[in-house]
Amino acid sequence: MRVRFLLVVMVSVLLASCSSSRKVTTKKQNKKAKIVEPKPEKLPSVKQIQHVRKLERGNKSLNRHTLHYIRKYAPLAVLEMHEYKIPASITLAQGILESGNGRSQLASKSNNHFGIKCHTGWKGGRVYHDDDEKGECFRKYKYVQSSYKDHSKFLSGRRRYAGLFKLRLKDYKGWARGLKKAGYATDRKYPKKLIKIIEDYKLYEFDKFTKKDLKRGKRIAKEEDRREEPKKKKATKAQYYEVKKGDTLYSISKKFGTTVDDLKKWNNLKDNTLSIGQKLVIK
């Protein structure tokens, strides 16, 4: 009996320890690491304003929303090109196409400009939309810059896109066809659409930007900021004069180098009447 009792106690202890260890493991598995998005930095100039103006002069029928998108996000595409070796023209054209010029629901509400889905291992924000299937999971970002960065990491970090990085940076046609071949999009016309956007809006010009151009662009952006900043007017404190016996508006105006009309205007006077002890604004 005593042996049986000891066996029962030991089994109970073992079961209790196993169940408690299972709880701890589950807790750790459910714990999600938060993705911290760095605050966007000031973007350099890549002559995107001049580029858009030139396009507008040459072709009045170009989509104004696309032109606005280029003006706003071309610097991001160039920055990503130099860090990840993806042509700026391709990144920009994909952003234009996938986000509907930044105006799609996914782009405007979730800052997802490339239609990147959650996939396994994604621990950032999520949003659900109908795409190839109903209610698919898409990535959600705090900043558009985070979407561009994630797009670069998405392409450079997957084996199926490895062949693209053997192409020249200026070979946007090869990149467009390679993206479709690697399975980025299901649309058969995807390469043609990208190439048309690149050629209609001459996005290949952004592929020519060197690192030296980027450094110059940062200086230009700072200079533009300084020019655009409204000049702060120095606040001038109003000065007052207390009317004394024998003072007139004329004598006061002469004393302070102003005019009777200005004194009347500054003090809301309807006539020239003054009273001793009255305080006048003399600027």
Note the beta-strand portion.
5-15%
Radius of gyration: 34 Å
Q: In angstroms, what separates the terminal alpha carbons?
A: 108 Å
Helix content: 40-55%
Q: Would you list the SSEs in sequence order as H and E?
A: HHHHHEEHHHHEHHE
The number of helical elements comes to 11
DSSP E strands, number: 4
Descriptive report:
- This is Peptidoglycan hydrolase.
- Residues 239-282 form the LysM domain.
- The chain has 283 residues and is mainly alpha-helical.
- It contains eleven helices and four strands; from the N terminus they run αααααββααααβααβ.
- It has helices at residues 2-30, 48-58, 64-84, 88-99, 105-110, 144-156, 172-181, 190-200, 211-228, 249-255, 260-266, and strands at 125-129, 136-140, 240-242, 279-281.
- The strands form two sheets. Strands 1-2 form a two-stranded antiparallel ribbon.
- 23% of the residues are buried.
Secondary-structure blueprint of this entry?
Blueprint lengths: L1 H29 L17 H11 L5 H21 L3 H12 L5 H6 L14 E5 L6 E5 L3 H13 L15 H10 L8 H11 L10 H18 L11 E3 L6 H7 L4 H7 L12 E3 L2
Antiparallel strand pairs: 1-2, 3-4
Helix pairs in contact: 2-3, 3-4, 3-6, 4-8, 7-8
Please provide a brief summary of the model:
This protein is mainly α. The protein has helices at 2-30, 48-58, 64-84, 88-99, 105-110, 144-156, 172-181, 190-200, 211-228, 249-255, 260-266, and strands at residues 125-129, 136-140, 240-242, 279-281. Strand 1 (125-129) and strand 2 (136-140) form a beta hairpin.
